[in-house]
Design goal:
This protein is an alpha+beta fold and 390 residues long. It has three domains: 113 residues, Butyryl-Coa Dehydrogenase, subunit A, domain 1; 102 residues, Butyryl-CoA Dehydrogenase, subunit A, domain 2 (Beta Barrel); 151 residues, Up-down Bundle (Butyryl-CoA Dehydrogenase, subunit A, domain 3), CATH 1.20.140. Strands 1-4-5-8 form a four-stranded mixed β-sheet, with helices on one face. Strands 2-3-7-6 form a four-stranded antiparallel β-sheet, with no helix packed on it. Strands 9-10 form a two-stranded antiparallel ribbon. The longest helix has 38 residues. It is globular, with a radius of gyration of 22 Å. The chain starts with 6 loop residues before the first helix and ends in a 14-residue tail after the last helix.
C-alpha cells in the first residue's frame, strides 16, 4: 500500500483544512454553548457538498474514496466534533440505502441525501440496548400494506434536525431496518441536552407510537437488520470517528505547540522545559501513528480487503484511547487557562471522552480485537503442566 497521499488527496486535504479554518472553527464554540450545529455552519457544510462525500457522483455525491473521506472527517473533527458527527451518521444512512435499497429507494433518497436537502439519522440505540444491539425492543408489525412501529430510540445524533431516520426494530422476532420520514404520524422527536461533550450533536430520543409506514419503506429484508445493514454502517461510523479523533488530537497538538511557544514562565517560554518537550514529543508520535492506522484502514476499505474490518476496529480503538492522554497533556500545558472555556482545549477535553463510547466502547473493541486475534492465530496451543503426561 502507499504510505503517502496521492496528489489529488493532498489537494483535497488542503481544501478541507481551509474550509475548517474558515467555516468550522469560528463557530465551534457557539455550537458547544448553544448545543446545536450553528445554522451558518450547517449551510456551509451542505453547500460544500460534504454531506454527500461518501456517495457516488451518479446520485449527486462527491464520489470520494475512503481515504479522502477519512481526511475530510479528520479535518472537520479538528474543528468541531459535533459537525463531524453529522457527517458520520448521515453517511451511515446514505451508505445503507446505497447498498441495500431498492432501485426506487436509491433513486428517490440518495440525490436528496447527497445534496443535503434531506438529513438523516441512525436509529439503533435504545434506553435498554446500547452495546448489546441484539436486545433492541422496538417492534414492527405488518398490517396489510403497512408496517406499524412501536418503541423508543435514545442518544440519536442530529435527530433534532433529521428529516429521515433509519430505524431498527424486530419483526416476528427478527431484526429489520426501516426508513421512517420525520413527518410520519406517531413519530415524536424529544430533544435532549446536557451532553458532556460534542454538545452540538443535537441528540434526541425518538419515540414511535403506532407509527405507520408503507411496506416499501423496509430496507433490505427482514432478518438482515443487524448483521447485513447495521454492522457495515457501524464499521463506516467507526472509521470516520477514528479519523475525527486524529483531527481532534491534531488540534490539541497545535494548541499545545502554540501555547508552549507563547507562554512565558520563569523568564522562558514553556517550550524550553524538557518535561513539556516530552509531552509534545509523545503527542506528535501518537497522532502520526493513529493517522497511519486510519490511512491503512481506509486503503483496505477502498480495495475491498476483508481485513479492513479488523483494521477499522484497531484504528478506532487506538485513536480514541490515545486522544484522552493527548488532550489531558494539552490542558496540563495550558494550566489554569486550559480549565476555562476561554480556550478551546477545555472543549477538546470534554469532546474526547465521547469518542471512547460512541460506535463501540473501548471495552467492546478490546473484546472484538482480542477475539479476532485469537481466532486467526495459527500458533499451536502448548499444553499446560496439568495436561503433560509422562
Amino acid at each position: 500500500m502507499r504510505l503517502e497521499l496521492t496528489p489529488e488527496q493532498l489537494e483535497w486535504q488542503e481544501q478541507f483544512r481551509a474550509f475548517t479554518d474558515t467555516e468550522i472553527i469560528p463557530l465551534a464554540d457557539a455550537n458547544d454553548r448553544e448545543e446545536r450545529i450553528h445554522p451558518d455552519m450547517l449551510e456551509s457544510i451542505i453547500k460544500a457538498g460534504y454531506v454527500g462525500s461518501m456517495l457516488p457522483e451518479k446520485y449527486g455525491g462527491m464520489g470520494l474514496d475512503n481515504v479522502t473521506c477519512g481526511i475530510l472527517n479528520e479535518e472537520i473533527g479538528r474543528g468541531c466534533s459535533s459537525a463531524r458527527s453529522l457527517l458520520t451518521v448521515h453517511g451511515m444512512v446514505s451508505l445503507a440505502i446505497l447498498r441495500w435499497g431498492t432501485e426506487l429507494q436509491r433513486n428517490y433518497w440518495l440525490p436528496q441525501l447527497a445534496t443535503g436537502s434531506v438529513l438523516a439519522a441512525f436509529g439503533l440505540t435504545e434506553p435498554g440496548a446500547g452495546s448489546d444491539a441484539k436486545s433492541i425492543e422496538s417492534t414492527a408489525v405488518l398490517d396489510g400494506d403497512d408496517f406499524i412501529l412501536n418503541g423508543s430510540k435514545k442518544w440519536i445524533t442530529v435527530a433534532q434536525i433529521a428529516d429521515l431516520f433509519l430505524i431498527f426494530a424486530k419483526c416476528d422476532g427478527k431484526a429489520a431496518a426501516f426508513l421512517v420520514e420525520r413527518e410520519r404520524a406517531g413519530l415524536t422527536v424529544l430533544p435532549m441536552s446536557g451532553l458532556l461533550g460534542a454538545r452540538g450533536s443535537m441528540i434526541a430520543e425518538v419515540v414511535m407510537s403506532d407509527c405507520r409506514i408503507p411496506k416499501g419503506n423496509l430496507l433490505g429484508q427482514i432478518g438482515m437488520g443487524l448483521t447485513h445493514i447495521a454492522l457495515p454502517c457501524l464499521d463506516y461510523g467507526r472509521y470516520t470517528i477514528a479519523c475525527g479523533c486524529v483531527g481532534l488530537a491534531q488540534a490539541c497538538l497545535e494548541a499545545a505547540a502554540d501555547y508552549g511557544s507563547s507562554r512565558i514562565q520563569f523568564g522562558r517560554p514553556l517550550r524550553d522545559n524538557q518535561l513539556v518537550q516530552k509531552m509534545v514529543t509523545e503527542m506528535t508520535v501518537q497522532v502520526n501513528a493513529a493517522r497511519l492506522l486510519c490511512y491503512k484502514a481506509g486503503y483496505l476499505r477502498d480495495i475491498g480487503d476483508p481485513d479492513s474490518i479488523m483494521e477499522t476496529w484497531t484504528a478506532k480503538y487506538f485513536a480514541s484511547t490515545m486522544l484522552p492522554k493527548i488532550v489531558n497533556d494539552t490542558v496540563q500545558i495550558h494550566g489554569a487557562n486550559g480549565c476555562h472555556n476561554g480556550y478551546p482545549v477545555e472543549r477538546y477535553f470534554r469532546d474526547a471522552k465521547i469518542n471512547e463510547i460512541i460506535e463501540g466502547t473501548t471495552q467492546m473493541h478490546e473484546m472484538l480485537i482480542a477475539e479476532q486475534t485469537f481466532a486467526t492465530s495459527r500458533r499451536p496451543v502448548r499444553p499446560t503442566s496439568e495436561t503433560v503426561h509422562s
